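RECORD TYPE: protein structure
NAME: Alpha/beta fold hydrolase
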Amino acid sequence: MSKRKKNISTNSIPSSLLKFISILQKVSTKLTVKFASKLFGSPIKYKIPKREFHMEKKSKQELLYIPKIKKQIMIYQYGENSKKVLLVHGWSGRGTQLVKIADKLIELGYSTISFDAPAHGKSPSKKTLMPEFIESILELDRKFGPFEYAIGHSLGSMSILNAIKDGLKVQKAIIIGSGDSVNDILKDFVSKLGLKPIIAEKMRDSFEKKHAIDMESFSSNIVARKINIPTLIIHDKNDTDVPYTASKNIHLHLKNSKLILTEDLGHRKILGDEKVIQEIESFLSN
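PREDICTED:
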């Protein structure tokens, strides 16, 4: 079995990549911005772990075309119950990643709809960004909604908040390990690559010029101010990928939210923790 690569959003970045980009930065700022932008929009496709095999096997799967972004995504329909819950994975995740939560929802009488975001899992293409996550959610709502609830992890949480702001109708939302400021995410990404802060600024300017949109407008704390539905926020204090202060700030700007901070679960283990799943069940039941 080949050694699994690590996501560049973590602290373990290949030394060869750091060396290359350090040299590139000395040669050309323009090329560095272009290369870093490509990395920023290129998720790693991981193999599905054994714990997700049963959801992958039992799900009805099909490719769905998303007209606005002109891309296809793989969707997973899990369970036969009429009441549906939307699940949204994070960066470099996949549609079966929230399997433990999905299993609990099946037990509670729901079915789930999840998907591999563009450039993730079984979905075609190699590059994507959060706006494509959001458009995928909105198209799923048109095709399979209405959903009772929406549950997201990391970038999936940010995407759910944006989708609610843009018209997704759900009774409640749950966001786990969510990021907050897009500018802060970009700065952190550039910092972990050992690049100068000016690279983050130029990456942002390039994106905004290309798409004619303010990147920071996607930030969770900004869209949160327009959301009224009950929202459960869960984040681990020992999350080394996304600081828990992001969720604390989101909580401050939501009108109707509950914040739960866990310990020693990190960014991904939190998705399968029994106590976390009990909190989710309690929130949805009350």
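COMMENT: The CA atoms of residues 50 and 56 lie 10 Å apart.
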